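Action item from last meeting closed. Structure (151 res):
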């Protein structure tokens, strides 16, 4: 079965090709939700009571679940939820599972937001790994003035 979930990195003005989640099977993966306007009524309470049982068969566990943000730059707009899975296959299988699909409308009818699956990085990972094309492992040498030495 083809998995339509793709990963797109758009931080810091960079963008790279998305990768099919089926190609990424060895790194930890994450279900990430940014939710707003959550109506904490009976349906959301029922969703919260049932979601843990949907995660267990896929070894999913909450890392962040709507905790208050200590804002450092600008205003954090929404509630953040991060669920960790051992692989992207497990993350996608959880989301597509009958058990989760059975309760998903309890959330979507009572909250606005975006949910996506992301593969974690393979370690060791450097920030420059997201730059397209060849790159050296070490930064270019610079003089004390910050200029790159001329050959």
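Sequence:
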């Amino acid at each position: 079965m083809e998995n339509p979930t793709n990963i797109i990195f758009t931080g810091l003005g960079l963008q790279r090709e998305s990768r099919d989640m089926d190609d990424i099977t060895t790194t930890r993966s994450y279900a990430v939700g940014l939710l707003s306007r959550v109506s904490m009524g009976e349906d959301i309470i029922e969703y919260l009571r049932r979601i843990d049982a949907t995660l267990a068969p896929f070894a999913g566990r909450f890392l962040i679940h709507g905790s208050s943000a200590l804002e450092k730059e600008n205003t954090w707009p929404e509630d953040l939820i991060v669920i960790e899975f051992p692989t992207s296959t497990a993350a996608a299988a959880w989301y597509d599972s009958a058990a989760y699909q059975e309760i998903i409308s309890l959330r979507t009818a009572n909250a606005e937001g975006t949910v996506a699956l992301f593969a974690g990085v393979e370690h060791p990972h450097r920030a420059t790994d997201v730059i397209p094309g060849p790159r050296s492992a070490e930064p270019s040498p610079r003089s004390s003035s910050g200029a790159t030495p001329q050959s």
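Note appended to the action item: The longest helix spans residues 42-55.
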